[in-house]
Write the structure tokens for this entry.
Amino acid sequence: MTWLNHLPTLNAALNVTSVCLLLLGYRFIKQGRIEAHKKTMIAAVCTSALFLTSYLVYHFNVGSIRFQGQGAVRPVYFTILLTHTILAATVAPLVLVTLYRGLKGTYDRHRQIARRTFPIWVYVSITGVVIYVMLYHLYSPQS
């Protein structure tokens, strides 16, 4: 087993970490803890950037992994995968704009886009973990 084989697990762990940071950051802003929110959200961005780097390295070297599940689970998996993929492509620029507006101090505009970015980012991170579990644990040739 090469180090590349460990990247899907690392990617799932980074996604779980992102979700935890996002939810914590949301809690902080609801409590009015702006500095804690800022630090937590920057950590979420960094975690997601590490995920994206690791994900790209893995798939550049390994390629795509075929889903092995059969029957009724196939449309479920591919529906999750399709929505995840489309939203993952849209969330990166949303995160960058949201981060920029927050750091710039244009809080009304930051809040406006964050209301859209947050649920998409959480969904993409959670479904990333679901896809990982389905692909590498529930329906892999080794399971």
About this structure: The mean pLDDT is 95. The domain at 3-138 is CATH 1.20.120.80 (Four Helix Bundle (Hemerythrin (Met), subunit A)). The radius of gyration is 17 Å. The helical segments are 7-30, 34-62, 73-104, 107-138.
